Amino acid sequence: TQLLEQSPQFLSIQEGENLTVYCNSSSVFSSLQWYRQEPGEGPVLLVTVVTGGEVKKLKRLTFQFGDARKDSSLHITAAQPGDTGLYLCAGGPNNLFFGTGTRLTVIP
Amino acid sequence: DAGVIQSPRHEVTEMGQEVTLRCKPISGHNSLFWYRQTMMRGLELLIYFNNNVPIDDSGMPEDRFSAKMPNASFSTLKIQPSEPRDSAVYFCASSFGGPETQYFGPGTRLLVL
Known about the structure:
heterodimer; A: mainly beta; 6-stranded mixed sheet; 11 strands; B: mainly beta; globular
């Protein structure tokens, strides 16, 4: 059983489209992180959310932490080919668990 | 500034051989993490050091795996003897303080034949 379930597992969209990916758990988290991993590289931290209901924006990326601190979403506006990668959420006890990941492909 | 440095970047070995992976964390960071990533199981924590002391090694698969951190600037992950199921990408990450903000190295891609 995965502590952190992410959906969808795979997503392929056209450049310019919007998308949302999700990270869900049955556990409450003190904080949750989102990472992006490109092929052949290690994950890179995008954001940390801490407060229930918190919304953080990073250019075209919007991150939301659920009110109950059990789930989070990442919304990308006007996706670009450079957004292609594996998106991972992380959290759980001691923030040491990673989700199953969403593999995003943005087609030019 | 240099990020987390891992060596080697690629390793191909035969079953039964000893494999040693190396990591140099970011200077000033006091926490170090070893992860393994596979398509089937995703990214899994193997062991977590804080101030050179192992804090959580519950993810270490079995006695064949061992990790050391002799000082703040160096860590090793050793597999002896290696098996084909150990084939994966092994990542080292470091942070200052807790695990909330980890910086990952480029990984070592291990193939055990």
